[in-house]
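Bug: token stream looks shifted between consecutive jobs. Job 1:
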Amino acid sequence: MPQQVLKPGEFRVSDLSSRRETPFDLQPDAEVRAKIAAQLNVLGVKKLRFTGEISPSGARGWALTGQLGATVVQPCVVTLDPVTTRIDEPVERRYLPAEYFDDVEPGSESEMPEDTSAEPLGTIISAQDVMVESLLLALPLYPRSENAELGEAVFTEDGVAPLKDEDTKPFAGLAALRDRFDENS
């Protein structure tokens, strides 16, 4: 049976050294960054680099540790103007044999494990996939440009004084009372 052709950033587990780390340094070109930007639904990925190593962990497991660096452009949630964000994140994944995950029956309820970095060990470890997933998780959920303001929406029935955002703040009245007290002192 012919061996599967590996994509950049993929490592066949059977080829990894069990005695030393296997380093990697992924720096996708503009074409690959554009594909990643489309996959993540962002305006662009200006820079992207993922460096690290895969090392043996325990009897049959593997650990991937690395550093993700990226410059990403997303639309502002208020104005849709481009917002550029610099991301620098440490990344860690542990690949464990299937029996580590066999305790859970499909479709049954179980508690989430505390170790969210553990993944089932397959025949290939893809640093490329870890890079894209880690970038997605590091993206700001609500990017805002510096000049973005939401404004204030006021809704009310005719003839009724509108309730404004500042009226709903529980300590706004106390601040006004304190200010009057200070003036009278």
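Job 2, same session, no restart:
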Amino acid sequence: MMNKTARGSLAALMTCMATAAAVSPALAAEHVPVDVPLEALEVPLGMQTPHLATGLPVPVPGIPEGPVHHTGEMLPNPVLPAVPLTGELAPTLASTPVPDLLGTGKNGEAKLAAPASDLVAKTPGAVVGAPMLLPDGDHFGLPALTKPQLGILAPVLQGDPGALLGLS
């Protein structure tokens, strides 16, 4: 009985390791390639369709900053920290045929290419003020009440996309 259990456990472990090895390259990718299929429109439109290839960024979460206790405040802030995310805008290529308008017998092609660029973002966060002040001697050591405060940390998105336009 022990031998079958050990073999079953070993088989389950090997299956998990194989699955992790197969999935890890996809998770390590900086973007997921996307090829937009427009070829099906050629027959109904009666013309060649553009080709569009791009990718979706895979955001990689970073380590959020921890709450910091400030002098004179009861709660550490931010209560909900902003989480930094990094990724890469995928290279994009769009090309379309250009008809021969000058009668030279050659059709041309217009291309728009955007190289890959880094992408940095932060999720929104929240700052909360307690509805009471610190205890003091004027109120027999009890805290005085105050209006609660709530602040939202704005999300951040930074990138540097570029593009190249060409005719051939």
